[in-house]
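Report of the visiting student (M.T.), summer placement. My assignment was to run the structure pipeline on a short list of targets and document each run. The first record concerns precorrin-2 dehydrogenase.
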Amino acid sequence: MFFPVCIDIENKKCLVIGGGKIAYKKIKTLSRYNSDITVIAEEIKEEKIREIGNIDIREKRFSDENLREYMLVVAATDDKELNEEIAEFCIKNNILVNNVTSKNKMNVRFGAILEDEDYQILVSSHGKNCKNSKKLRDEIKNIIK
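After the run finished, the structure tokens were exported:
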């Protein structure tokens, strides 16, 4: 069971492994919080990733040799087995990890975020249905306008 918590990732080293659409969404979210983002992917398939400022893009094959230097890792490749290997390593080494191809093999989930200067609300469906989380977030937004 996941405990909901907010963490400060400003200027913290975050790694996103993958260069597709889901990786782009994760990078975009992390970049809103001024984290120090590195992206490793053999190929950047989602060109919008290059448009996000202030990220270090390394187009190369992933290797776990430097994972310990990151506070948060996002395994966002299209290879489920690789994502699980990354998640297992991170969990064993007390590194926060989000695995986009699993609902449980991770220790961090991203949710639908609603925030302004007065509040921050995160909606999570326990990894079951992200679309429902976003729908509920939007309903909450309409209620508190």
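The chain has two domains: 13-99, 112-144. The longest helix spans residues 130-144. I thank the supervising group for their guidance throughout the placement.
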